[in-house]
Structure formats: C-alpha cells, structure tokens
Amino acid sequence: MPKPKLAVLSGAGISAESGIPTFRDANGLWEGHDVMEVASPQGWQSNPELVLEFYNQRRKAALNAVPNRGHEILVELEQWYDVTVITQNVDNLHEKAGSSKVLHLHGELFKSRSTVDESLVYQMSGWELNLGDYCEKGSQLRPHIVWFGESVPMMDDAARLSRAAEVFIVVGTSLVVYPAAGLLNTIGPEVPKYIIDPNMPSISSMPNLFLVEKIGSAGLTEVKERLLRSYGL
Ligand code: NAD
User: Fold this and answer.
1) pLDDT above 80 for 12
2) What is the CATH number of the domain that holds 27?
C-alpha cells in the first residue's frame, strides 16, 4: 500500500526555535533592513555590496543553526506518510534534520547563481559571497534567492504537490507572501488542513480546517499525535 501523501508548507516561523529570526515579527524590517533594499532586483542594482553582506550574515547564522523538534517531527512523519516539504525558507534546516523531499520555493542560501545565465547555479560550502566572485562565464555571482518582484520558478511543482496532497500542514508562515500563500486555496475540500502558528494568520474559512495556535514544535507534536490516532496508533 502506498503511503498517503502529506504536503507541508513551512515558513520562517519553523526556524524561529533554531534561533533564526522571522521576518514580519520585526515590524516589516528584516534584520533591521527594508526588505526592498536587500531582497529585490532594485536593491541589488543600487547596492550589490549591501545585498551580498546581508546574505553573508544570514548564511553565517544558518551555518551554525541546528534543526529543532518541529523539523524533526516532519522527518518522523515519513514513517507513515509520503511527506513533501514545500518551504519558503532559504535556510537548510529541513535538509539538516533529514527530510527526504524538500522544495525551496524562494531559493536557497547555500547556493549562488550567475547574473548572466540563470542555469548556472553553484553549491556553496562556506558563508561568504563577495563582489568579484564570478561564474564560469566571467560575470558576478548573486545569491540563489527569489527576490520580491521575481518569478517563482518552483511554483508549478509546488501547486502540483499541493493538489495531490491527502493531508496538508501549514507551519510558521504569515501567509502574506504570494504566490506561496495561495497554495492553501488549491487543496481539495475533503483534505484535512492543519495550520500551526502562535499568531494565527487570518484565513478564510474552508472545510476540514484545524487551527493549532502554538509554536512549531508544540503544534507539530499535537498534529503528529492526531494523525497517528487516525491510524489507530
Ligand atoms: P514571516 O516572517 O512573514 O512570518 C513568520 C510567521 O511565523 C508568523 O506568522 C509568526 O507568527 C510565526 N512564528 C513566529 N514564531 C514561531 C514559532 N516559534 N513557531 C511557529 N511559527 C512562528 O515568514 P514567511 O511567511 O515565511 O515569509 C517571509 C519571507 O522571508 C519568506 O519568503 C522567506 O523566504 C524569508 N525568510 C526566510 C527565513 C529563513 O529561511 N529561516 C527567515 C526570515 C525570512
């Protein structure tokens, strides 16, 4: 018997217990910066040095961060479910925890990309990317991040996975960044949808919606127990 398909949409909140701050909790500033300065094509054009330094600092913090209980529970659920994590996060804590299938909607901190050929993507081992670091075609490398105003290449895959899900969990996202937030509306009415967040985002009512107003580790503990009970475990 194939395992039932479980899709998870995760956001910055799941990494908060690992010491990586969320974005919107800090009054719309991301680590003290206007998001358009550090996470938009315009910001990159006007001050690439600032943008590179911003992501260097995020990378440095992520390098030392360890997954928390929330990330671990998503790995444990693979014993009973075919789990795919669709994450808005650019850190690699789902992979560090051991999740087998992770789709990064908004890019990955530990990858860089050519500014002349977006098919040239490079894995990074350290935390630094600087002006003067070039791709094999001789152009400046940029962070492999989907910035505000850029298209989201993984969106079709994410929508397909969401539509196929038999259980859907949303954890730690303010659900204000589109098109990611729209995934919730693609889920069938019969599918149980669990939303975990200590400050519940406003969500239009839909069938089989379960709101768990808790931080990631506690909320996922509760949801895991409920799911296993449905298995008679
Ligand atoms: P967001 O900052 O807009 O929202 C964070 C959500 O997490 C809020 O609803 C908040 O109530 C909730 N939260 C706070 N503490 C929590 C906890 N301990 N457990 C569970 N939930 C908690 O984040 P977003 O919706 O993911 O959108 C922000 C964008 O910024 C994303 O696109 C992402 O790429 C980027 N970002 C990424 C990281 C990361 O990779 N860790 C961190 C900050 C921002």
Assistant:
1) yes
2) 3.30.1600.10
Give distance in angstroms: CA of 85 to centre of ligand 1: 15
Please give the distance, rounded to the nearest whole angstrom, from the Cα atom of residue 17 to the centre of ligand 1.
11
- Determine if the pTM surpasses 0.90: yes
Ligand 1 in reach of 43 Cβ (< 6 A): no
pLDDT (tens digit per residue) in 34-75: 889 999 999 999 999 999 999 999 999 999 999 999 999 999
176/128 same-domain check = no
**Which residue has its alpha carbon closest to ligand 1 atom 26?**
11
Report the pLDDT averaged over residues 151-170.
Answer: 96
Q: Which atom of ligand 1 is nearest to the CA of 106?
A: 34
43-82 core/surface letters (b: 16 or more CB in 10 A; e: else): bbeeeeeebbbbbbebbebbeebebbbbbebbbbbeebbb
